[in-house]
């Protein structure tokens, strides 16, 4: 086969491949996607909290450093989880694999704090039933942030089908937990665990188990 025929075959191959190409929109930087999600999520939660109403003793609780530390940890876990999740939308995370460490550490500290609370308060009294107005509140506070982060996540091409849902659960659960703590008057660790944390933990586990079916490309 002469050189001219080889060039013609190569040109035909390139043309055949190029005809199947379509314009692709570049995925925005994770920080930009984080800001968009945080804006939507915070505006929605602020609106719902306004209509539900703040707990009557919120002013007193905001003077408690342990309460403020609890809310700060939840906020940090939420934002770092969302940011790590948006990095996970990129197949290789652009070499930023360390991004998943902060939310995991914050979640661990959060759980240790809850454990210390149980020990120092001489145990934990579990609620008699698994559904209350706080369970409804957890769903209400989480539905829009979860939908928004899910929409932004599936636009990426993750190769971390189990870690991404976990990070998204941290993001949604952190904000939902804050909202529930500032509207619910209960400070009992059993109540907080079952109604304020467990719904979001279950949400994360369910998403992680379904990751291979959701994040396919």
Task: Based on the model shown, name its key terms.
217 residues, mainly alpha, 9 helices
Task: Write structural notes for this entry.
The protein is mainly alpha-helical and 217 residues long. It has one domain (29-214). It has helices at 3-18, 30-52, 58-61, 65-88, 101-120, 133-154, 163-183, 189-209, 211-214. α4 runs antiparallel to α7, α6 (133-154) packs antiparallel against α7 (163-183) and α7 (163-183) packs antiparallel against α8 (189-209). The longest helix has 24 residues, at 65-88.
Strand count, sense and barrel status of the largest sheet are:
none
Question: Could you give the count of β-strands?
Answer: 0
Briefly note the structural class of the backbone. mainly alpha
Question: How many helices in DSSP terms?
Answer: 9
- Our count of domains comes out at 1
Which value, in Å, is the CA radius of gyration?
A: 23 Å
Portion of residues in beta strands equals under 5%
Uncertain regions spanning at least 5 consecutive residues = none
Write a compact overview of the structure shown.
By secondary structure, the chain is mostly helical. The protein is 71% helix and 0% strand.
SSE blueprint:
Blueprint (H helix, E strand, L loop, with lengths): L2 H16 L11 H23 L5 H4 L3 H24 L12 H20 L12 H22 L8 H21 L5 H21 L1 H4 L3
